[in-house]
Specification:
This protein is α/β, with parallel strands linked by helices. The protein contains ten helices and ten strands. Helix 4 crosses helix 9. The protein starts with 5 loop residues before the first strand and ends in a 12-residue tail after the last helix.
């Protein structure tokens, strides 16, 4: 059996020593870029490798990009191989942030044609709540041979978003908090607001109070109400920098609503061009 959206801690523990299962720790903090790797060194799920959002899952920021540009996929492929991933691996990603950083790697692997990848539901917190131990021992990594099948239709560039919104051919969903979406506050980017006509679906709504994902049925019901008559293939997600929006992508896929896409540059790229319109709502 393969896992392609979510996996629980009990199932992961049963396969913890399966050499075909590659576990990736994606913990990260936007406030302190070293916090995730520090946490990894001081305790991680056994056999887990570490992926750094800035260094491994993004490329260098330029004057024209958002805060987390897509990585060079050739370099990412080499890193996947170094972590031991091949085309037959079952990959499990986890973090301590409700899955929002793990979902970035989940989405990137799918862009490379690797669908056997899942996010640990509840993250490292639920791993520990289940009584499973952490380790400081670094895994012995046997390099894999990963052949990518890059699908560039999984994401949109800014101009495509702009033109598609003008034609009303996509349904754009903003994954940020309501306060940031409305433009009432903006703690990270220099300009507040949202892309005109975008809907708002904070990624936190995908979760129960326990930190676990809502059921597939609940997620399907909520997303269908949000997108109305739009098909899931017309849905495009964005956030501040193209990271937490992957949480909404993951949630739709888990709900059986397949084929939505990512505006990878997201708000932090959108505002780099002063000719692009923005909206602020009260």
């Amino acid at each position: 059996m393969t896992y392609r959206t979510l996996i629980n801690a009990t199932t992961l523990n049963k396969h913890i020593n399966n050499p075909n299962w590659i576990i990736i720790d994606c913990r990260f903090s936007l406030a302190n870029s070293d916090a995730g790797s520090f946490a990894y060194r001081h305790g991680h799920i056994p056999n887990a490798r570490y992926a750094h959002l800035n260094d491994d899952l993004s490329s260098v920021v330029t004057d024209y990009t958002g805060r987390h540009p897509l990585p060079d996929f050739n370099l990412l492929t080499k890193k996947l191989e170094a972590w031991g991933i091949d085309n037959h691996s079952q990959v499990i990603c986890y973090d301590d942030s409700n899955g929002c950083f793990a979902a970035r790697l989940w989405w990137l692997l799918r862009c490379l044609g690797h669908n056997d990848v899942a996010v640990l539901d509840g993250g490292i917190q639920h791993w520990q709540k289940n009584g499973y131990l952490l380790t400081t021992t670094l895994p012995k990594q046997q390099p894999g041979a990963f052949r990518p099948y890059l699908n560039t239709t999984n994401w949109l560039h800014a101009l495509k978003v702009q033109n598609s919104m003008a034609r009303k051919s996509i349904c754009l969903i903003d994954a940020r908090t309501p306060e940031r979406y409305r433009g009432e506050q903006e703690p990270i980017d220099p300009i507040a607001g949202h892309i005109p006509n975008a809907l708002n679906r904070p990624f936190q709504l995908n979760l129960e109070d326990t930190g676990l994902f809502l059921s597939a049925e609940s997620l399907q019901d909520q997303f269908k109400k949000l997108i109305g008559n739009n098909s899931s293939e017309k849905v495009v997600h964005y956030c501040g920098s193209g990271v937490t929006a992957c949480h909404n992508l993951l949630s739709m896929e888990h709900a059986g609503l397949k084929g939505s896409k990512l505006y990878a540059g997201s708000w932090s790229e959108w505002i780099k061009d002063k000719n692009r319109r923005i909206s602020i709502t009260s």
